[in-house]
TrEMBL record:
Transmembrane regions listed in the UniProt entry: 6-24, 31-48, 83-112
Keywords associated with the record: Membrane, Transmembrane, Transmembrane helix
Name of protein: Stage V sporulation protein AE
UniProt-listed InterPro entries: Spore_V_AE, SpoVA
Origin: domain of life: Bacteria
Length: 118
C-alpha cells in the first residue's frame, strides 16, 4: 500500500502543478519557487511531516519535499548554532541530494553524449 500511496500522491502533486502551469500565466521557474516555498511553509506549520508519513516518496521527491528538507535543516541548525544556522542549515540538509543530482547528471551527459541544440 505504501507504493500505491506514493504513486497517487506524487501523481496528484504533478497533476496540480501541470494544471497551474496550463491555466495561469506563471512561468515554470516561478511555479518551482512557489513549490519549494510551500513545502517550507507546510513544514514550519507542521503539516508536511504527517503528510510524508502517509505518502512516503510521493511527498518527499517533488519540490515540496525539497522545501521541507530545507526547512528542517534550517530549524536544526538554528537550534544548534543560533542565527548563523539560518544561513548554513539548508545547505547541509540538502547537500547530499544536490550533489547526487549533479554527479548523476554529469555521468548521464558522458554516457549519452548530449549536445546543445541549435
Amino acid at each position: 500500500m505504501d507504493y500505491v500511496n506514493a504513486f497517487w500522491v506524487g501523481g496528484a502533486i504533478c497533476a496540480l502543478v501541470q494544471i497551474l502551469l496550463d491555466k495561469t500565466k506563471l512561468l515554470p521557474g516561478r511555479v518551482m519557487v512557489l513549490l519549494v516555498c510551500s513545502g517550507a511553509v507546510l513544514g514550519a506549520v507542521g503539516i508536511y511531516e504527517p503528510f510524508t508519513k502517509f505518502a512516503g516518496a510521493g511527498a518527499t521527491v517533488p519540490l515540496l519535499g525539497f522545501g521541507n528538507t530545507l526547512w528542517k535543516g534550517m530549524k536544526t541548525a538554528i537550534d544548534e548554532s543560533g542565527f548563523l544556522g539560518l544561513f548554513t542549515g539548508g545547505f547541509t540538509a540538502c547537500a547530499a541530494g544536490v550533489s547526487a543530482a549533479l554527479i548523476f547528471g554529469y555521468l548521464a551527459s558522458l554516457i549519452f553524449h548530449s549536445k546543445m541544440r541549435k
